[in-house]
Automatic annotation (TrEMBL):
Keywords: Cytoplasm, Pentose shunt, Schiff base, Transferase. This is Transaldolase. The active site is at 139 (schiff-base intermediate with substrate). Its EC number is 2.2.1.2. The gene is tal. The keyword Acetylation does not apply. InterPro entries: Aldolase_TIM, TAL/FSA, Transaldolase_2, Transaldolase_AS.
């Protein structure tokens, strides 16, 4: 039994936060499913930008798309959809064995439309239809403008990975959007047991931003709080999940599990497994870059359920952050804006690169 298996026994599913055609065609994805107990995959614009910028795995398809005169956006989505579809096929046995809980592969809507509800739901429908696999999840960012689109998608039976959640306040809106969406799906006669969702709560980016501000403040009290905000914030979110996550769901509906994202540590002074060992617990997912998965396998460090009963201690950390001079509302606003901007930048770079290759 590996440490990833031990993590699963605590209630946390391990998903890989990466995908490329090389992983698929070389058999690497199947290998890490078999040997590292990975049970899902998440992608984002940055991941695909990295995958398509190196090697020659996409050359043949790019040449074919060039022959057809495909537009740049269409070419990029054709390739990402093919990768996600193939990954879904590889993970289908996991999906079937877990009743749809795991075996999931996520693909994200264009980050440039995150402020447009109509465009977001339109593209969510297109991606859902074109991937055409029961275990795909459509990633929609939790911006204020996209929250209604999350409800729209769920109401139509589309499984959704709600991404870029930073604050507990926004997370409450996400829970409400999920509840309303599956209620509407049930009222429309859809089988809600087939609708799944995760709420992707970003962890390490919070520590990066708050640590920077704590260092600017520079007091002993402030510096002592470095590296504590990310875990505390996720634990506060977990307490909300336990409080209202199952409330008023229609019969047969699934829990929208919290998913811990951005769990590769950015500060080399922190343990590589920090955002895994300290966020292990029932009904959760942790999507990790492969180096973090390997660190867990090698180092372990798990110490049981690290989530249940931690709300008071986590709240104390946030009270101490406020007392030290941290403007939390500003932190969350900055992180959400920058999160969208970073994905837009990656997507734009990918489109520019693809445009050059299609000429």
């Amino acid at each position: 039994m590996t440490h990833i298996d031990e993590l699963a026994s605590l209630g946390t599913s391990t998903w890989l936060d990466d995908l490329s055609r090389d992983r698929i065609t070389s058999g690497n994805l199947q290998e890490i499913i078999d040997t590292k107990s990975v049970v899902g995959v998440t992608t984002n614009p940055s991941i695909f930008a990295a995958a398509m910028s190196k090697g020659n795995a996409y050359d043949e398809q790019i040449a074919a798309l060039k022959e057809t005169g495909a537009a740049v956006d269409e070419a990029v989505y054709a390739m990402t959809i093919d990768d996600v579809r193939d990954a879904c096929d590889i993970l289908l046995p996991v999906y079937e064995a877990t009743g749809g809980q795991d075996g999931r592969v996520s693909i994200e809507v264009d980050p440039r439309i995150s402020a447009d509800r109509a465009a977001t739901i339109s593209q969510a429908r297109q991606l859902w239809s074109r991937v055409d696999r029961p275990n795909v999840m459509i990633k929609i960012p939790a911006t204020a403008e996209s929250i209604p689109a999350i409800t729209d998608a769920l109401a139509e039976g589309i499984s959704v990975n709600v991404t870029l959640i930073f604050s507990v306040a926004r997370y409450r809106e996400v829970i409400a959007a999920y509840r309303t969406g599956v209620q509407k799906a049930a009222e429309a006669g859809l089988d809600v047991s087939r609708i799944h969702s995760v709420a992707s709560f970003f962890v390490s980016r919070l520590d990066v931003e708050i640590d920077r501000r704590l260092e600017e403040i520079g007091t002993e009290e402030a510096l002592a709080l470095r590296g504590k905000a990310g875990v505390a914030n996720a634990r506060r979110a977990y307490a909300v999940f336990r409080e209202i996550g199952a409330k008023d769901l229609p019969e047969g509906a699934n829990l929208q599990r919290p998913l811990w994202a951005s769990t590769g540590v950015k500060n080399p002074n922190y343990p590589a497994t920090l955002y895994v060992t300290e966020l292990a617990g029932p009904d959760t997912v942790n999507t990790m870059p492969e180096p973090t998965i390997d660190a867990v396998l090698e180092q372990g460090g798990l110490h049981g359920d690290a989530l249940t009963g931690t709300a008071d201690e986590a709240q104390q950390v946030f009270e101490q952050l406020v007392a030290a001079g941290i403007d939390l509302d500003d932190v969350f606003e900055v992180l959400e804006r920058e999160g969208v901007e970073k994905f837009v930048a990656s997507w734009s770079d990918l489109l520019d690169s693809m445009a050059a290759q299609l000429q």
